[in-house]
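Handout, page 2. Input:
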Amino acid sequence: MADLKLVVVGAAGRMGQTLIRAVSETEGVVLNGAIEREGSEFVGKDSGELAAVGANGIPITDDPLTAFAAADGVLDFTVPAASVEFSTLAAQARIVHVIGTTGCTEEDEEKFLAAGRHARVVKSGNMSLGVNLLAVLVKQAAQALAGGDFDIEVLEMHHKHKVDAPSGTALLLGEAAAEGREVSLSEKAIKVRDGITGAREEGTIGFATLRGGSVIGEHSVVFAGEGETIEISHRATDRLLFARGAVKAALWAYDKKPGRYDMLDVLGISKDT
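Output:
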């Protein structure tokens, strides 16, 4: 099989540059395009030089349509509105679309699902192996500790530039807890506490969000009972782990049927675990 030709969108951003580095170090894939928004100061610059991997002769452009038409897949850690637009283009080109974008609405998710009729869409709140294994453990723990004796709290911290809260990973872990308890996260989530809130409502799933410095990502799920506390945690120390996961997802999805997938599919972890 020839090397998988990948396009990185948002190529000049921190995650875009990290994706370019991951592609450059992974066998079986090659960078075939790098995209930035129209009017970006980085358009025309060599994408390899920008990502500190050396000149690769692939300039950053603002023309995703042409880039997608010549590619096998796209790696997308941008913003919801851009990801929705890219999903339409990926569906038209019938290529792989790996989405690590967070902060998406239910309407956005419906559009990604629709794109999956023609594209192979892999979307996850977190692309790392460790976090997805953590989600499985959280689901199992929530199921084992059901019955009202243990309260569930999801804690997360990210760098000061992150724009959405709770993080996509925190929501992924919250969903895992809700599945373990067989409840709807949208009905049980408590994302804000302020003032006189009263006693904690039984069965709710709380979220706490911290922002500061250059923290890449720290997540903990706490099961708090009477006289004992269980905490399951994950700490990311290098953005490359997310980028490597995204490249792995693109390689996995290349020969799959069109559809909407997630990292549990990529990792071969049963959703019924």
